[in-house]
Amino acid sequence: MNYKIALLSASLLLSGAAAAISAAADEHDRGRVEQRPAPRPEARPPAAAPGRPAFRPGSERPSMDGRGQVLDGRYNHGRYYPPTGSIRPSLPDGYRPYYRGRDRFYFSGGIWYAPRGPGFVVVAPPPGLVISVLPPYYSTVWLGGVPYYYADNVYYTWQPDQNGYSVVDAPDDADAPSPPPDSAPSAPDDLMIYPKNGQSKEQQAADQFECNNWAKGQTGFDPTQPAGGVAGNPEAARGNYNRAISACLQGRSYQVN
């Protein structure tokens, strides 16, 4: 009899302990559910990874690209170039050599190089160097009624006597570009000109301006002057002028009828 009473007492004690443990667990769970999560820190934009361009607030394009080239945004040029003073071990393909006295320069893709030790350094070219073809990417800007061609902080102007484009100093009014002047000489009215490569109105005006000056120098005929400003047979001189300006414009990817 005493044995049965002892077993019953032990059973009651075990049941009480289990209920106490279960109640404590429930209380712990309720505390965990009711506890509010700590507020998250304010999100911040991730820092730029090494070798990736860093964006500036308000800018649409990064000031540098992934290769360390700098954005030239003047006149909405929008091209990237290696900074002046950059060294590279060899010249890029398709470069052209130029000489100024005993100094050597190399030109490729709008970038100028000069020898420096075993490699080549990016430089600003001296004024007076003449190139026959403009860089593949350039911006036409009118300053003081004259078209300039701009790329990588270098200005070029057309030189009819050298049949090429000369490096020039930045003009004094470089910060005040203007639209092409309405009075800029153009092709004769009897010539119909169509851009074949989608040239802008500014580019077409600049090309016609230069081709007019070139054709004038080749033939002596000036379409803005009475009788072309020539003695003798003005009709023959006009025909020579038309052929000259047509050839010039066709060489710049225009269709001339």
Ranges where pLDDT stays below 50 over 5 or more residues in a row are 17-25, 27-37, 39-59
Radius of gyration: 38 Å
Mean pLDDT: 76
Strand content: 15-25%
Characterize the main sheet.
5 strands, antiparallel
Secondary-structure element pattern, one letter each: HEEEEEEEEEEEEEHHE
Helix content: 25-40%
User: From the helix content, strand content and strand pairing, which structural class follows?
Assistant: alpha+beta
Number of helices: 3
Strand order of the largest sheet: 3-7-6-5-4
Question: What does this entry look like structurally?
Answer:
The chain has 257 residues and is α+β, with helices and mostly antiparallel strands. The protein is built from three helices and 14 strands. Strands 3-7-6-5-4 form a five-stranded antiparallel beta sheet, with no helix packed on it. A five-stranded antiparallel beta sheet has the order 8-12-11-10-9, covered by helices on one side. Strands 1-2 form a two-stranded antiparallel sheet.
